[in-house]
Amino acid sequence: MTLWFVTVGCLSSDPPSAALPSPTTTALSLRPVLGSSDLAIGPNRLVFALLDSQSAPITASSVEVKLALVKDDIPIPQSNLSAVFRPWPSGPGGVFTTNVVFTKAGTWVAELTPIDGRAAGELARMVIKVVEQSATPGIGSAAPRTVNLTIRDVSSLEELTSDLNPDPNLYSMTIAEALEQGKPLLVAFATPGFCSSATCGPQIGVIKEMRGNYNHRANFIHIEVFSNPHEIPEDPSKGIVAEAVNEWGLPSEPWSFLINGKGEIVAKFEGFASREELELALDALL
Question: Does 182 score more than 80 pLDDT?
């Protein structure tokens, strides 16, 4: 698994300066880091961070996002959005997220401007590659009816998760069984003990808190990224990627998927998703 936060894009990969969302003479003073590795036609959650010239993270309440589709080296403005700041669960900095609908595959560019904070009014430009079809299950598609291992199949939870303080309820049923119940389902793919981005543990912490608060109104499942977490305490290179991860086409970790009572995926979150984001999406179903 790869570090989702830095593998997808950076300022150095931008197209020539002619490919801009809109004419501008403002110097590029910020460096964007794209945190979304699976962007396709349709609705997407766009994730990015902003760094200053010293590679220090930029924070702001929100960032203005001007999107344009590049066609024949000419930017065609598409939409203006606002991306909200999501602080890291631990440590300084965070990422910005927004929901965007890409109408066509190809190269898109975004001009990013913090609306407040120490970098207010400064500019970053980010290239976004959009493909025809997502590698992961798309919004509106049927969730894979995965028959994952549960607590019934093992002698201890250490065989199911690298979480040091696991909630047994997250491992009590398969995804296929949960889909049969007709309730909203939140599935989190993460490896708390071996996460390359250090966000899997906090993500599962959020999932555990939510499960307790939503009681029996929704189901919650954690799928460990590795099928043998108990065999790799000191060497993740010995890990065997779980079949479920391949079945869902996941290029990174963590990932969370929200599924409605009809078994359709209604939201998906690459990287760390805040409790606020997840609860907002789940409450819409309830």
Answer: yes
Report d(CA 185, CA 170) in Å as an integer.
Answer: 11
Give dist(CA 46, CA 1) in Å, integer.
20
| pLDDT, mean of residues 212-233 | 93
Name every residue whose Cβ is closer than 8 Å to that of residue 91 and which is 6 or more positions away in sequence.
none
- pLDDT for res 26: 52
Question: What confidence tens digit (pLDDT) does each residue in 44-53 have?
Answer: 999 999 999 9
How far apart, in whole angstroms, are the C-alpha atoms of residue 15 and residue 22? Answer: 14
Residue 150: half-sphere exposure toward Cβ, Cα within 13 Å: 15
pTM for the whole structure:
0.87
